[in-house]
Amino acid sequence: MYNDRRDKIRTLLLSKPFVSLAELEAMFPNVSSMTLRRDIEYFEKEHEAIKVRGGARSTRFISGEGDATISARLKANVHSKDCIASRAAEFLETGRSIFLDSGSTLQRISQYIPNDRYIFTTTDPVLALDLCKIGLPLVNIVGGKLDKDNQTITGLQASRFLDDVNIDIAFLSPSGLSLRGGFSVGNYSECELKRIVVAKARMVIIMMDSSKIDKSMPYTFCDLTRADILITDAQLPDELAAYAREENVRVINVLDK
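^ that's the sequence the OP posted. Answer follows.
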């Protein structure tokens, strides 16, 4: 019976971060691979797993992994985040499709946005409400699962929503940047969404305070070379700075005099 089979798969997902399709095929030798793939899709719809190549990742082990909650991040480095947000707002353009990421730095940007006819798409429900209060901007919010700890929309529905959205300029905020790890985050679902955005955007602008520099989180969404502009509040380490120059990444330190 499929209910019994799915109960066993659920037990696996609660006990380990990754369950492979090969593992399920060995566990259920009389069940077709297609049926087992449908089981994985079922758990994805239930937000208990994320379908990946070769199997499924358990959301129990990847939700919010490695990142402080948004409430904690909102209280940290407030002055620097304001400076970064103010500088980033200078790159906004009307008549463009603009993506605004979720996160404590991006939430600071609404206060610097003029009342003009911008077209925004965001995964941050709090930022979406703040943008609506400005007046003229058109605001689209990505649909999907709400991660209440990080105040962001994630999941399969969110990915499908973004598949249908054209993005001209993307403002993104990572949890870490390192030479080897690139721009990274601690949440797999969030990483997948950022990858989609980066692939679609004509221009990628990264907003990141100094606490993220020379730090690696579990999941990389893009390399430093994919950024067009990096806005931060400190000098990059020598190796990172040299790499950015070689790849023509414009680095803006908002605290430079």
